[in-house]
Each structure stands twice: as structure tokens, then as C-alpha cells.
Design a protein that fits this description.
28% of the residues lie in helices and 26% in strands. The radius of gyration is 21 Å and the shape is elongated. The protein folds into 2 domains: 105 residues, no CATH class; 126 residues, no CATH class. The longest helix has 17 residues. The model has no long low-confidence stretch (mean pLDDT 86). By secondary structure, it is α+β, with helices and mostly antiparallel strands. InterPro entries: Ankyrin_rpt-contain_sf (IPR036770), Rho_GEF (IPR051632). One of its GO terms (biological process) is positive regulation of canonical NF-kappaB signal transduction. GO terms for molecular function: MAP-kinase scaffold activity.
């Protein structure tokens, strides 16, 4: 989800300015309707929805004009694929509280990727995490809520801070157990806050310690979502397009 989609219109589809185009994506359990913006008379632009599973969906380009019935201009299939970012987000989500898995992730620290790759990884994994259907009981600290803060252990927050993943850290902070993870020491006695300080991640340290710290700039900060029952409406400020998602 959240990629830019460009639609090229054929000559016969280039119509008057008062015609509004939108895309309808129909999956097995969820349907999305996105508005579009005109780049020029022959091109439209919109944002792909974050879908609930990896599958091929039906997509229809529709045209609407006041006083006229809605017209289906074209239909095609659109595939949501499972990429590395999705795999990484799913793996990390299942790692919460699993000490063996979290200790394994520390191998990544020894082969630190270049800053540009870290930024790309951070953006992609944080977006994938946003689109995962996490269980209602999911917690950054894992399922075993009987563990106290005094028990040294590795957490997902340690992982995100160790690699300097600003956006993923922000996402985890908003989840259940996110704030509680900040005061947990690992086996070396480090908390996520002390790790950020020790590694010179000033922005990250600020994010963890300042009460009114703002979300780091990213593609996802350009969007705002409102949920209501089985529906949600998302506004992407960057392109000024709207998306309505409904559970079928």
C-alpha cells in the first residue's frame, strides 16, 4: 500500500473537466475506493490502498459526472504481493516477547547497512507494519504480561533503536506496551533510551524522551485516517486524494 499509481487514459477517455475519475479495488473481504487527481488531460494519479492480504483484486476505473450515471471506463486485475518489507514486519510482529528470535535479530547489528538503506528499510517496514492486521491482544512486549519491568530482556523497541529506525520506533511507541518498553533493561543493562544515547542517535533519543515529540517525516505522515466501524477514510495530503475502505 501507499505507492503512487498512474493511470493513462486513451484518446476517447479524455473528457470534459467536470468528469471525476476514481478507482475501485474489490478484494475477497475488503473494498477500496480512491479518488484521483488529474496530472494532465491524459493522466491521473492516486495512491494504492494498504490491503488486508496478498491477493489479486479486481480494479475498475470509474467516471462520474453530475446528473449522469456512473460509468465503468476500464477494468483490470491488480496484485498485492508479499515483499521483503511485509515479510520483515510479519516476522517482527511475531517476535514480540520471543527472546530467542529477538536475540537472533542482533546479528543485523554486526553488518550495519548504509544510512540510505536504513532510511529505506525504516520507511518500508513501518508502512508494512501499519497495514498488518495485528491481533487485538498484540503487545510490543509480547503475550506474557506477567513479566515485570525488572526482568532483563530484549524487546522489539531495543531492535528498532539499535538499528536507528526512527519511523518504526514511533509506530511501536503508539502500540500497547510501547511506552513500557522504554524502561526495560536488556541483559547488558541497556534500555532503548540509553541505547539511543550511546549510539549518538539524537533524533531518536529526542523521540523517546520528549513528551510532545512529533512523528518523524515520512510518506505515512502525509496521510490521515479516520475509522468508523467497518469503514475508514484516508486523506493523503501529498496528492490530495481520498480513499474509502469498507469491509465486505
Amino acid at each position: 500500500g501507499d505507492s503512487i499509481i498512474t493511470v493513462q487514459l486513451t484518446e476517447e477517455d479524455k473528457v470534459e473537466d467536470d468528469v471525476v475519475f476514481y478507482l475501485v479495488f474489490t478484494g475477497s473481504t475488503v473494498q477500496h475506493c480512491t479518488s484521483t487527481r488529474k496530472i494532465n488531460p491524459g493522466s491521473l494519479e492516486t495512491i494504492s490502498p494498504g490491503h488486508d492480504c496478498c491477493e489479486t483484486v479486481k480494479v475498475a476505473l470509474c467516471a462520474s459526472r453530475e446528473g449522469h450515471p456512473v460509468l465503468v471506463v476500464a477494468e483490470d486485475s491488480f496484485q498485492f504481493v508479499q515483499d521483503e518489507a511485509y515479510d520483515a514486519a510479519q516476522f517482527l510482529a511475531t517476535c514480540a516477547g520471543n527472546q530467542q528470535a529477538l536475540n537472533f535479530t542482533r546479528f543485523l547489528d554486526r553488518s550495519r547497512p548504509p544510512a540510505a538503506d536504513v532510511d529505506f528499510l525504516d520507511e518500508k517496514v513501518a508502512l508494512a507494519f501499519r497495514h498488518l492486521k495485528l491481533p487485538a491482544e498484540w503487545n510490543v512486549l509480547g503475550a506474557d504480561q506477567s513479566l515485570t519491568e525488572n526482568i532483563p530482556r530484549e524487546t522489539l523497541m531495543h531492535f528498532a533503536v539499535r538499528l536507528g529506525l526512527l519511523r518504526l520506533t514511533w509506530f511501536l511507541l503508539q502500540q500497547p506496551g510501547g511506552r513500557g518498553a522504554l524502561s526495560i533493561h536488556n541483559n547488558e543493562g541497556a534500555t532503548p533510551v540509553s541505547l539511543a544515547l550511546e549510539r549518538g542517535y539524537q533524533k531518536l533519543h529526542q523521540l523517546l524522551t520528549e513528551e510532545e515529540a512529533r512523528e518523524p517525516d515520512s510518506w505515512s505522515t502525509l496521510s490521515h485516517t479516520v475509522h468508523s466501524g467497518d469503514y475508514s477514510v484516508k486523506h493523503h495530503r501529498g496528492l490530495d486524494v481520498y480513499m474509502l475502505t469498507a469491509e465486505a
